[in-house]
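Form P-L/3: holo structure prediction, ligand flavin-adenine dinucleotide.
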Amino acid sequence: MKRALMDGSMDLEGKSQMPGGLDHGTRRKLLRLLGKENFRTDLATRVSYGFDATNKVYLPDGVAFPGSAQEVRSILRLANERSFPVIPRGAGSGFTGGAVPIEGGVVLSTERMNRILSVSREDLVAVVQPGVVTGEFQKEVAKLGLFFPPDPASVEFCTIGGNVAECAGGMRALKYGVTRDYVLGLEVVLPTGEIVRTGGRTVKNVVGYDLTRLMVGSEGTLGVITEITLKLIPLPRARSTVLAFFPSVASATQAVSQILSSGILPSAMEIVDRASLECVAMSNPVDYPQDTGAMLLVEVDGPEAATKEEARNVAEISREVSALRVVVSQDEKDSESLWKLRRAISPSLARLRPHRLNEDVVVPRSKLAEAMETFRKIGEEYGVPLTTFGHAGDGNIHVNVLYDRSNEDEATRAEKAARRVMEATVALGGSLSGEHGIGITKSQFLPLEVQPEALELMKKVKSLLDPKGILNPGKIFPRDKG
Ligand SMILES: Cc1cc2nc3c(=O)[nH]c(=O)nc-3n(C[C@H](O)[C@H](O)[C@H](O)COP(=O)(O)OP(=O)(O)OC[C@H]3O[C@@H](n4cnc5c(N)ncnc54)[C@H](O)[C@@H]3O)c2cc1C
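OUTPUT (holo model):
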């Protein structure tokens, strides 16, 4: 069977044994180690674990389902001994190919390590295994009146291990921060097999280098995270959502500035451009005024009375800044249906084109309107559909350059447009990725932002921890130089 980048269509021709593929002895060892239920090499399993949300498909040689840090250690030790790649994988919802086995080897799925080990209301701390689904964890702690704020739009299916490895963000980052801000400690199996504990279960801890922070956002390249100690906070008593339609992106971003300068710190502020709105409206009920140029969704939370007042003020400010229509949620159900609409945007883009280059750039908030206008013009210039939506509160914009891979010319124009988006972002003082990471899809752009000395330092850290380069090879660093 060929191993190839199977962009969208599977190529299952031929029977050749791939270079670097697992030899018979290694397979037998893995089977003995994990049992046949937990180490699979059948085609259906390999295909199922060969892609993520980028839709780039590579076949692994096998898929391992370890149930403990000790089993992870044994797999990594064997990988070092026999030189095969190991690719950690949570739910495979990543947008940058981080969990994709581009050099074959063994995909290490964390789905059996899916238990919430403890929750302490007194310490406001939970300990979880990496395969716990984020949304399920949030619901469990909410039953105890506790709150785990990071909320990527994939919350219903992504895992906490994947969130930690990507330092996932989400809509509440403006007020509550990102995953990094909630990770107090980790158990990590290093690529060479040592099981290391970092941090602890206290909010304050300045003992030695901050290895926890080094691991958070390391995209499965520095270790396999097998246990996570998380900070929790009390669940806000109430929340309210305001939906406002504006004639332009500029007026929507003006409302963002005025809401923030009025002293309100919303838990979320999402901006959606006209093109994204049209897309999501194809399959969801959204009644927007004809002249809408952008939509703003603002959530405030806290004590009940204060929340109601803040929602009223947000609505008032929006009207003052020329909103065409403003809707304030009446209850929790109302709020949730507005947020469901926001979460539906990303999947709905497939209605315009089957493929996309999905960038999640960040710019200083003061540059938000300029950035969105610049990106729109880039799309026009290259003749490709380009949509923007995202976290207006923290300047993190999801730019989707849409195309059809079967149209080679359009695919090339899309690639060029995406590069221009990255260059424009850096020129505006921004950053290439706010939450999706680098993986394989953005590694070519890394030198635009990271100075050569810093890039060298990152590579040195990688080779110190993973001298044989067996853990998630080919990720983050540009391939020609890495
Ligand atoms: C519809 C949709 C909406 C999304 N919205 C958001 C959003 O709002 N914000 C956001 O930040 N992201 C978003 N994402 C991206 C994605 O969901 C996140 O990156 C998420 O954190 C990935 O989790 P996962 O469990 O799917 O990880 P995977 O995709 O399986 O893996 C992601 C990376 O983490 C590594 N990894 C996974 N588990 C471990 C582990 N235990 N130890 C070490 N490394 C590990 C993998 O090797 C890979 O590099 C969205 C994705 C989709 C499909």
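COMMENT: Confidence is low (pLDDT under 50) at residues 1-20.
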